[in-house]
Amino acid sequence: MSDQINKITTQMRKWILEYIVLSIISNWETYGAEILKQLKENNLIIVEWTLYPMLSRMKKDGLINYNWVESDSGHPRKYYNLTQDWENLLIIMWKSWDTLNKAVNNITK
Asked: What CATH number does the domain located at 2-108 have?
């Protein structure tokens, strides 16, 4: 039973994090460290080795792009932005989340 709970929790967290990361990137073009900062400020602790593979997968899936921008700190940063495909996916994800959230709240009251 514990293995099933861990698997379900992991899948839920993965989906929610992807949704949140896409939402962050939809607000403004940003780089990985800023995404991590936003997540941590909202008590969604995530580590680099979780975020960067997720961003690579999103790039591979055609959801995001990136460009290199020189930084004042000396090394260039990879700034992420959304592709045209993101809009439809983000809308679908938002509707799914809203429906799921309402159902869970109704059932668990």
From this structure: 1.10.10.10
Residue-wise pLDDT for 43-88, tens only, equals: 887 777 789 999 999 999 888 999 998 878 778 899 999 887 777 7
- Which residues make Cβ contacts (< 8 Å) with residue 36, sequence separation at least 6? 46, 48, 51
Buried-exposed string 62-81: b where 16+ CB fall within 10 A, e elsewhere: ebbebeeeeeeeeeebebbe
Contact 15, 57 (CB under 8 A): no
Look at residues 25, 32, 28 and name the one whose alpha carbon lies nearest to residue 75. 32
Domain boundaries, given as residue ranges, for the chain: 2-108
